[in-house]
């Protein structure tokens, strides 16, 4: 017997008997859709992570406008590399670590953020040089394979000397641990590495563009639709819906996702059970009426 929800993934179809409020809440659960814009970047990072460690580890510089999916890329890599808790025989394994460069103006702050990412609790008791040694020691014990440095363009907001010191700290981590770096930033990210041309030469630049009305968008929308607990097919990948989505969101991934979630919630609450053009437009300003906090409790 064919399922009435053949347009949905199996985990999503299993949600269809939930009460309306719980289905609405499930719409807003964070989900990651693997799509062509990002899968080859993930493959590139995993290649850097697991190839034999070299004398001059390489990096990947991924730039794009706000909302293009850079944070989603970082989250996907962290989720794919499951951390192993510490035991009597070995320390905790943390193959991927993440920190942000915003307001990081010197090496001491870089190593402080690395210690925070490693979960070290007694940072304030360490001097600058001691923080460096402890961060490198713990990262090595954790078998760090990839360091993700977000908002790399923010080094441009500091003095030339501070830029130099911050980038030297990043290079120090790469050299000392023989670990690659994934640097994320806006369109100005390439300029951020100009203060250290030696470091810049190690990074391959890539871009995460805004979405266009093409087959890449169609594939993404069809995959995303299968995760929304709606009883009817919305045909988000149709040409008319793609044109509307690009027009309304300017092709920004974060805005596309936010709008689809709100439109899906409105469709459940209103009994439409599919995302229509009208609901997508309404979702620009209108929020669902379900009390998400009450459902969570």
Automatic annotation (TrEMBL):
Pfam families per the UniProt record, alphabetical: TniB (PF05621)
Domain of life of the source: Bacteria
Domain AAA+ ATPase stretches: 56-279
Family annotation (InterPro entries): AAA+_ATPase, P-loop_NTPase, TniB
Name of the protein described by the UniProt record: AAA family ATPase
């Amino acid at each position: 017997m064919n399922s009435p929800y053949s347009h949905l993934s199996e985990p999503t179809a299993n949600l269809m008997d939930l009460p309306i409020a719980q289905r609405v809440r499930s719409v807003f659960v964070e989900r990651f859709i693997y799509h062509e814009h990002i899968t080859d970047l993930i493959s590139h990072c995993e290649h850097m992570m697991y190839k034999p460690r070299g004398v001059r580890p390489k990096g990947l510089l991924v730039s794009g406008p706000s909302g293009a999916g850079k944070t989603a890329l970082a989250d996907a890599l962290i989720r794919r590399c499951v951390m192993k808790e510490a035991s009597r025989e070995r320390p905790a394994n943390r193959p991927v670590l993440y920190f942000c460069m915003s307001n990081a103006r010197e090496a001491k702050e870089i190593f402080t953020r690395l210690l925070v990412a490693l979960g070290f609790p007694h940072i304030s008791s360490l001097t600058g040089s001691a923080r460096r040694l402890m961060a490198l020691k713990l990262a090595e014990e954790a078998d760090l394979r990839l360091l993700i440095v977000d908002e790399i363009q923010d080094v441009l907001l500091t003095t030339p000397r501070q830029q130099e010191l911050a980038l030297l700290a990043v290079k120090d981590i790469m050299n000392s641990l023989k670990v690659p770096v994934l640097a994320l930033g806006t369109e100005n990210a390439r300029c951020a590495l100009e203060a250290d041309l030696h470091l810049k030469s190690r990074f391959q630049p890539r871009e995460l563009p805004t979405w266009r009305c093409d087959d890449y968008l169609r594939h993404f929308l069809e995959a995303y639709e299968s995760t929304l607990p709606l009883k009817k097919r919305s045909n988000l990948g149709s040409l008319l819906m793609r044109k509307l989505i690009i027009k309304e969101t300017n092709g920004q991934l974060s805005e596309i996702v936010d709008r689809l979630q709100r439109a899906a919630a409105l469709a459940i609450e209103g009994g439409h059970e599919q995302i229509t053009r009208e609901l997508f437009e309404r979702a620009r300003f209108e929020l669902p009426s379900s009390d998400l906090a009450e459902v969570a409790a």
